[in-house]
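Checklist before submission:
- one chain only
- standard amino acids only
- sequence pasted in full

Submission:
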Amino acid sequence: MTVEPTTAFAVPLRVSTGLNCRRCHQVCRRRIPRAVQMESTFDVERNIRPGLVEMEPYVPILPYEVLAKKLGRRPEEIVKLDANENPFGPSPAVKHALESAPFLHIYPDPECTELREELENYTGIEKEHLLVGCGADELIDLLFRLFVEPGAGHSVVNLPPTFGMYKFDSDVNGARVINVWRREDFSIPVEDVERVFHSEMAASNPPKMIFVTSPNNPDGSRVSDADLLRLLRLPTLVVLDEAYYEFSGDNRITWVKEHSNLVVLRTFSKWAALAGLRVGYGAFPLGVIKHLWKIKQPYNVSVAGQIAAIASLRDRGDLLSKVDQLIAQRARLYQKLQSIPFLSPYPSHSNFVLCKVENGRTASSIRSELVDLGILVRYYNSAGLEDCIRISMGTPEQMDKLFLALTQLAGQ
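Returned file contents:
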């Protein structure tokens, strides 16, 4: 049989149809002209979506084992206060539940049925409104997939400085980001947001979503009920990220039943110390969640993640008592920082405190000096966060080490 060549090749190929395929293949390879054996001309850069070629990657915080090698220290020598993790670790019930798990070899429940039943009891909203994800990050991405069409000119409203994943997912999903910057005290200028929706451009193609984090990361400020209600009157989906809900007490999750344009997201990473297992959940209006069920990955939350989250909810008394300890450490830190001349702390309702670095010092230098002492904090030098560091709450012993280090840096 003769296979006719494409216009790129001048010599026809002779391909045997004999039964000895391996021998035939070897013979045919010897007959293939050199021009045919050239590598593919596929150009990766030309075939990738244009918006992704120049996209800046998200920069995550490094884990303990990587940091330990990088710093030349044992993990137990590092005071890690840079990622808003829970220093007390998961409930002991989590370890016991995972050790006795009988079906780790079986695919997980795609609907997280038992976990959603426990969440119904914890949140006070019916499980029909609840969807569990591989971290709240997955749910953010799913909302973009549902509402934003790449190349269609869709936009979202972002309220920086805030959590970086909203901008990241906007870029990944081809959404234009409209930044409405927070005030110096990190409060939301609601009138500026309203102005965006009243503009001529937005009249025909209003932003699909607005992301509101309360308490906000990285400063810990809260959105008031009055401001949230004003935002809910806009023709857009309001995504309220309550990742730090347990540290603030503000609870709007049941509002979802009264507002068809409100989504509330939460996580097990902070209060339940399951950051490494990636479990988040959201409450959605029924009109939204029915479509999310169609587009989520079938087995998106692992067996281990579901088991750990269920065990955490059933042992939440112990976990919430540790949340109370972290809140106490937050108040203690805020008070101690008043005596550090180069740090000016912002009020916080979360498990961290943001500080402005002043008096001739820089956030970068303070971070480097603390790293030399085995203490890690997050530092910023971006718009709205110039020369700031963020300190996550640690155990009392870890915070004592931080206080001593800051006192040394201040020359006291």
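Reviewer check: The radius of gyration is 26 Å.
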